[in-house]
Amino acid sequence: MNKAQLVEAIADKLGGRQQAADAVDAVLDAMVRAVVAGDRVSVTGFGSFEKVDRPARYARNPQTGERVRVKKTSVPRFRAGQGFKDLVAGTKKLPKGGEVSVKKAPKGSLSGGASATVKKAAAKKATTAKKAAAKTAVAKKTTAKKVVAKKVVAKTAAAKKTTATAKKTTATAKKAAATAKKTTATAKKTAPAAKKATAKTTAPAKKTTARKTTAKKTTARKK
User: Least crowded by CB within 10 Å, which of 97, 100, 121, 192?
Assistant: First the structure.
C-alpha cells in the first residue's frame, strides 16, 4: 500500500479524499518533525519511531569486498508495538469490521492510536483552514467597505467645496449688483443738483453782460 492507497482506504471514514489526504500529511509531518528533533514518537499498539545515532565505523563494499570507512550519522528507527506484532504473527485476529482495537496510550505519547491521531489531526487542520478562510473573507469585506466609504467621503467633500464656491460667487455677484445700483442712484440724485447749480451760475452772468451792453449804448448816445 502506498500513500495514495492509504488515503483512499481512510477517505470514507474522514468524510472525503481531501480530508483524508490532509490528515495523512498532518500525521506524517508531525512524526517526522518530532523524530528529527530527537523525540520518540510512540503510538500504543502500533509502534514507536525514534532517532538513532550511529558512530563512525568501517564497513565492506558488498560488490568489491573493500573495506570502507563510514562517517558518523543518524537514522530513523521504527519498532513495532506488541499488538502490531501479534496481529502480524497471527496470534491475534483482525476484527472483521471496524477499527483495530488498541489500548489507551500513556501520557506523553502521540495519541491513543493511529486512527484517533488521524482524526484529531484532520479535525484540527480543517478547523484552522475554516478560521483562516473566515478571517480572510472578513478582511476583504472590511477593506471593500473602507474603500467605498473613502470614495463617498471624497465625493461629498468635493460636492461641499463646489457648493461653497458657488455660494461665494453668487454672494459676490449680488454685492457687485447692489454696488452698481447704489452708484446709479447716486448719479441720478447728483445730476439734477448739478444742472440747477449750472443754471444759477449762468443766469447772473447773462444779466451782468446785458447791463454792460446797455451802459455802453447809453454812453454812446450822450456823446
Answer: 97
Contact in structure between 27 and 65 (CB atoms under 8 Å): no
Whether 101 and 46 have beta carbons less than 8 Å apart is answered as no
Mean pLDDT split into 10-residue runs, the chain, 223 residues: 92 92 95 94 93 93 92 94 91 76 49 44 63 69 68 71 73 76 71 61 58 65 59
Q: What whole-number distance in Å separates Cα of residue 47 and Cα of residue 146?
A: 55
What does pTM read for this prediction? 0.43
Note whether 136 and 68 are within 8 A (CB): no
